[in-house]
Amino acid sequence: MVAALATAAAACSGDAAVRIAVTPAVRGACTIPADGSSLFVTALTDDGEVRSNVSLAAPTVLADLPASTRQITLEIVAGGGGIAAAGKSAPLDLRDPPDEVRIATAPIDGFCPVNQLGRARRAPLLAALPDGALIVGGEGAGAAAEVSAERYQLATGAFVPVTTPAILRQGFVGAALTTMPDGQLVVTGGPHSAYVTFDPASAEFGLPVLFELRFFHAAVALDARRLLVAGGCGSVVAGQCSAGSALRTTTVLDLVTGEPIDGPALTLDRIGGAAYLERSEAGREVVVVAGGVDLTGALVPAERLDLATGQVTVVTGAVGVSAPLPGGTVLTALAPTGAPPAPTAAVVVPGRSAACVVRPTAARAGAVLVPLEDGAVLALGDPADQVERYQPQDGTWQRFTPAGEPRALLGRVGAVRLVDGTVLVVGGEDEGGAPSRQAHLFRPRLLGPRAATATVTPLADDTAIGLISTDPCLTPLEAGRYRILAAGAGVGAVALVGGPLLQDGALSATVRVAAGGLAVITHARADLRIETVLRVGQPALVGRRRADVVEPLCTGGVVASLGAGEPLAVGASVRDGSLEVRVEGQVVAQCALAAEPAGVWGLGAVDAGGDVAIETITARR
Prior knowledge:
- By secondary structure, this protein is mainly β.
- The chain contains no helices and 53 strands.
């Protein structure tokens, strides 16, 4: 890959600013479109953004960019004035500036080709790395198991081979690749009775450690040293689980001691599922295992495992391939390879025994779901010429034709989101059905964790994507307003602004509270958030919620009114550890916060019958 932009960074004036030399690259794929005329360069900083317009004709020096720049985005302007292509750097720390930052560009919602894989692969395993991705296994020529591994380098677009330990050279059929909180990757299962870690810093596999034999299982990190493996089967023939070999056991593996501990047994056979940590409070982990099929090939519903109590419950309505959504929910949709095409889609809501069934889409098999930075989910698979995006604000699907240079086929690919927000799509099959070496980048819109601001106005259809619902069944989009409902006591459904992850920042919104109360949400991630609950005639209550437990933090003033269904201005801000919540410009709560991790911000409805309509909402640094 030839980069769209080479940026040489050098610090000046201590930590006050940096100078960036912008050097356009040769025009071509993943770089500068033929009709590109100028370039917007935006530095995303801790406090906002700095935007510059530069020429594509010659190198340009941008002086005095903040040293707190965390990412750089590019938007290439076409001759007609529209954005022809866009790109974003990996996360940056300009206190120790790199010599060069290379940024690939592609049309928004479009593909561009990068260098080919070193080996042809159907359905390989992928995991993101700080500088690219690790690709292992898959199915090679003649349906033989591919035993090699390679690494995609984001800076160069090249694939380089990775040496694998001897035990992994039996292949990766049925193995799982799990990312730990510290970035280490763990290979469990497959045709070897051991687990092996991969260190992104050294780009090397470690020594194998004896572990149980298990194929096509689900796996998830529980904390920095433990992971859970669940389900799968105990033997395979010709790459498929043998008759009668399904495993319902689960095991918690301690990577420090190597000690395996039995977990609660699943209630269903599950081949090829995935696992997600729904609740991570110390001593009370709850895991959702979703996706996969039984030994007959039938789709099986999700299950929820409480590792502390051993209780396992089936989550009805949640079948198909799965992907995590912001706010701790899990999307299940479509069908995996080998199963009949399915149009179903549902969202697993924390604590609920029945999934929220959302609007179905076109039937698809061999589906691959990739969560995007703005909270949406990209769907690839058969039929191979169609691409769809799940929109979490109302549980709908958007089918679109990719711009740029789309892949010829998208069946049986491997895909993963990279640290620059692009999706790496590799392998699959060529027109003749043989395994492919193809590799492409898909460029979603630039909205992501380091964005300075995001505004959602439901009346404008193209911006409604920016809201993320924790329960699509309680967040309908009606009459140009985004409604949030509550079905029981306390905070019900929550709508979060997708994209920016904020520690310090501000939220402003215009809402109509038709019934019940209003919750202002900050620092939401997985099962933890800060919520300020506003009820008319009662003091504002600020608390830290973890799953279904709320730790009281502060009590504010009595809330006089929430507008009685008329437009109401609501705002919140956090600066230097102090939270302030306002209604119609009046402060109703002030609270000192601990150093909360960055998260997404939004609003929720409160108490049974609660009904809040959002007319517009903005989150900003």
